[in-house]
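Section 4.2 – Deliverable D4.2 (structural model, holo form)

The reporting period included a commitment to supply a predicted holo structure for the target in complex with zinc ion. Inputs used:
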Amino acid sequence: MKTKIRNNTFFKYLKEYKILKFKTYFIFFLLCINNNSALATSYFSASKLLKNIINKDDPTTYKDLNFIKKKQSKSFDKRYGEEMYTATFFIFEAKYEIGNNVQILVNSEFGSHENIAEVAIKYSKMLGKLPIFFRKELKWIIIHGPWVDKSKCTCRWYAFRNQGVYIHTEMVNEEAEQEVLIHELAHVTIDPLYYNSVNEIVWTNAQKQDVKSISRYAESNPLVEDIAESVVAWVAARCKKDRISKKKYKMIVNTIPNRLTVLDDLIFRNSQYPLICKK
Ligand SMILES: [Zn+2]
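Output (structure tokens):
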């Protein structure tokens, strides 16, 4: 009898233990789901999440750089404020194997002609590593130097739709420069195809269906930064899957599947050369 009671107690204990164990696993499972969704927005930006997806081993379509002239002109320079400021620029024309030429304006603050040419060539080559389609609306890039005190800097790189990109050298880490450039070119060429256009609904529907965003930057600026951030993730998932972890790949395709489909429809209709990309 005693044994029976003990057995009963034991089985009761065992049953409770199993329930407890199940509950523990279940809570752990929920935490994992929660962690996964937290991962989707735990990175400030896509370029922080996806560094070096394009690197020195990638080919460039860059061919040549022609010096045009030295000229004083007005441009934005966020080191000084939100207005336009006059500076002297060395103006070049970068030529590519395929795709339109791009005007490269380098601030004379870089000093010697050698330094200025080096800066112009570096960013011209970087542009040539990205899909030809991304350069479609790009007319120019303006290259300024970094802030003297980089720790106080709020200026990174910025872009104007259908126009060009402002670069502040040294304000973006070398390992993320190509990815930030993808982000900026997306502002120039892809933003205007959706934001404030008849196709805006295509993007906003995808945003609603996906619910979450690829980064905190995209999440807090859904009408300005979401496309540029998602395009960086598209390049990683469709063209450089071998350079990102399986975890990051899964996170991208599970977090923004509908946005990826919109970008598939657009980018696969155009040239991704020199990248090789597939669904
Ligand atoms: Zn941006």
